[in-house]
User: Which sequence fits this backbone?
């Protein structure tokens, strides 16, 4: 186990190349539960226009029953439908980051933590892939497609926001947060105190101060 | 714990929404990104005079290679995450202020290294550029945020411990009854 933050950081840098390479090779396997979940949603008709979700080498393809409409310069067959492919690696590299941190920490239960970490990150990755798929179908495929889907403006705005958040912030932040929770004791060594314990103590202190400041109702 | 998580998510969500808003883009994101491109160009020009900045684009006049600094590469999101984590953590305003000041320098400093390294990596090999751009640097910048935040929490914890009166030996009043 590394003894200082500096050494820990160097160990992370050493682990990053092999872990990211391993993740890149294992991507189809690691993405498998996402496909299972998204296909299940499509089977249940959520959202109603997605007919199926297929896994590709690096991501997922959303097939829909929406017609492409009229696009200047493009001719479609009468039975053409809209489909889109999402490169899920852009939203799942947090798994590799979490793994690099876990291996750099060299916790006695590192394999268990890797397993838990991967599982904990899956819902965020599913949400990101779903948001990106919806964004590509509803916001990039033209007004004719949007009209057929009949989504309200606020739903489209939510998808646009989720897409941005999923792309720019969610993958690394969720990976760091999951690692942090799984390595609470390890972090305590660097910080000199249990950070989660500090937060709980601050909450309790605030509650006690609030209770002391609030006068108790008198009985008539 | 619940308060920290709620505050962290709310601050981050509001700041992220604000910078996505057209006004946020026009008056903050674009000027910041343009300034960053010019700063990087001036830094690089010290050793490589063929580097110039046009708006948010960093370009080599020698071979025509250029990188455009887009959302996610200007360090704004990473700074927002650090800001949310520091503001949400229970501490004094003075502690928050110096944490934000030093954290901002650490995050933006590393981001300048990222932009310049990607600029040269792209001129050398596009596959390496894609890898570093899409995965490695994204991860390292947020890792920088985590390390800065942990160092800041450690400093707060130390100062809180130093401010507390010693538990034994230093007290003026006896902690156990003394027989007269």
Assistant:
């Amino acid at each position: 186990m590394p003894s200082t933050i500096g050494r820990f950081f160097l160990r992370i840098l050493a682990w990053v190349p092999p872990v990211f390479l391993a993740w890149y090779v294992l991507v189809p396997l690691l993405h498998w539960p996402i496909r299972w979940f998204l296909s299940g949603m499509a089977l249940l008709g959520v959202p109603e226009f997605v007919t199926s979700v297929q896994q590709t080498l690096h991501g997922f393809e959303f097939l829909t029953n929406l017609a492409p409409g009229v696009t200047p310069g493009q001719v479609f067959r009468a039975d053409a439908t809209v489909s889109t492919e999402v490169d899920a690696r852009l939203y799942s590299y947090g798994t590799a980051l979490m793994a690099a941190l876990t291996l750099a920490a060299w916790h006695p239960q590192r394999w268990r933590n890797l397993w838990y970490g991967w599982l904990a990150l899956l819902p965020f990755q599913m949400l990101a892939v779903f948001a990106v798929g919806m964004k590509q179908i509803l916001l990039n495929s033209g007004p004719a497609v949007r009209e057929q889907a009949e989504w309200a403006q606020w739903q489209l705005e939510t998808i646009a926001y989720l897409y941005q958040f999923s792309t720019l912030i969610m993958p690394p932040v969720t990976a760091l947060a999951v690692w942090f929770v799984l390595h609470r004791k390890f972090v305590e060594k660097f910080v000199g105190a249990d950070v989660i314990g500090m937060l709980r103590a601050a909450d309790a202190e605030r509650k006690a101060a609030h209770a002391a400041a609030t006068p108790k109702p008198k009985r008539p | 714990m619940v308060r920290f998580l709620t505050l962290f998510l709310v601050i981050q969500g509001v700041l992220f929404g604000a910078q996505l808003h057209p006004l946020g883009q026009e008056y903050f994101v674009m000027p910041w990104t343009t300034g960053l491109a010019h700063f990087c160009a001036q830094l690089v020009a010290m050793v490589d005079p063929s580097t110039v900045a046009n708006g948010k684009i960093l370009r080599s006049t020698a071979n025509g290679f250029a990188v455009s600094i887009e959302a996610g590469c200007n360090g704004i999101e990473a700074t927002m995450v650090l800001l949310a984590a520091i503001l949400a953590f229970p501490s004094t305003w003075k502690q928050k202020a110096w944490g934000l000041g030093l954290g901002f320098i650490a995050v933006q400093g590393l981001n300048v290294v990222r932009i310049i390294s990607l600029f040269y990596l792209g001129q050398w090999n596009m596959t390496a550029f894609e890898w570093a751009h899409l995965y490695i640097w994204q991860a390292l910048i947020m890792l920088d945020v985590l390390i800065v935040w942990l160092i800041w929490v450690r400093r707060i914890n130390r100062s809180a411990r130093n401010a507390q009166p010693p538990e034994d030996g230093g007290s003026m009043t006896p902690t156990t009854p003394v027989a007269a």
Notes: The interface with chain A takes residues 1-4, 12, 16-17, 20, 71-72, 77, 80-81, 89-90, 131, 134-136, 138-143, 145-147, 150-151, 153-154, 157-158, 161 of chain B (CB under 8 Å).
